[in-house]
Design brief:
Distance between the termini: 76 Å
Strand order of the largest sheet: 1-4-5-6-7
Number of helices: 10
Shape: elongated
Length: 370
Amino acid sequence: MFTMKMDNNGVLNEISPVFRPYIQNLYHDLELGLCKAKVDLERIGNNNDGSVTQFRLILPYCSKKLKWEVIFDSSAPWFAPDFRFDDDSFLNSPDEDFFVKNIPSLTNWDGNNPNALCDVITEMIKLYKIHQIKKLNDDDTSRASFEYSALLGNGFTSEQDIEVWVVGHITEFLIKLKVDTSRLPELYNEGIENNPGIDTALLLVRYPNSTNAELMLSPFLTKCLGNISLPLMHQSGVLMDYVPMVTDMLNNKIQDLLNNEKLKRELLAQLIVKYEGAVLEHDANSAALLFQMNDFHWILQIDIGVQFPEKPPVLTLRSVYHCSKGKPKFKVLSSCPYNNFEGYIEQQVDIFKNECKGISPSSQLLNLNN
């Protein structure tokens, strides 16, 4: 038997056609775990005709990748598949009543339902989580068991917000943080389709060394918030205090982002209203304005970054007439004083105009004209 990772495009072509609909729905539609990640596949063997009837599912759980083998019988394609788990203690001796009660999609396998395998895996993952919690509770004297019970007891976090993984004396918690991202799409509309799961902020904590907590943000939140440094979790600290603290920190950062965005939009609105006749184009983060000063036409580009107002806007002057190496000459200004904005721009344009013409800077300052 050999193992070969399938690529995304070739996976369906290698699966036996009679089983392909199950895999297609599983591969494209099923998202598992708090991280809402996709399932991956590995081939573990071929049928006599070269088609694949058994494969290994790579399932996201906690920070791990579970590897469960699925084995179909090509001589009886109407039968439910067999499974082989990478955890020998999981479902090692269940009776028929257990399967009927907890995995009805397996005991009532519907070969005509393309979602049949998705349903079975979803039910099994729920059972696997229960299995891991039981392993945790079996050692009710451990620090991790205490932390889990205390965290659920504070009313801030529910069982649905935690994934538990236990092996030996090591316990891992993946905790979903309740961050409020409801207004973030107002700022980053383009990020919604490209970065699904915009509300995903997860905290990964391992015992016995709980001080090395990790923050896991979805691509969308990473784009919005950038790199986040977690506050130190002391050895004597408890999760029931630490989880709300990290949650509040993220919510405060989101609120700061929203407040800064409001200031940015107000600044752009003021400029656009004041210089309405000069506006070439603008969006939520920038504006391009066309001015002339003593027959010198130039464009003022204003770009406001996500760190505004801590970092001022970037101002760029571009000549309409003068080129260098086939591109319009430009000059990025070094600062942006808010208290004398127009005077500063007039001074810099006068210098830039003479630089473009190759003459000494003029001391004459003129008003901006639309």
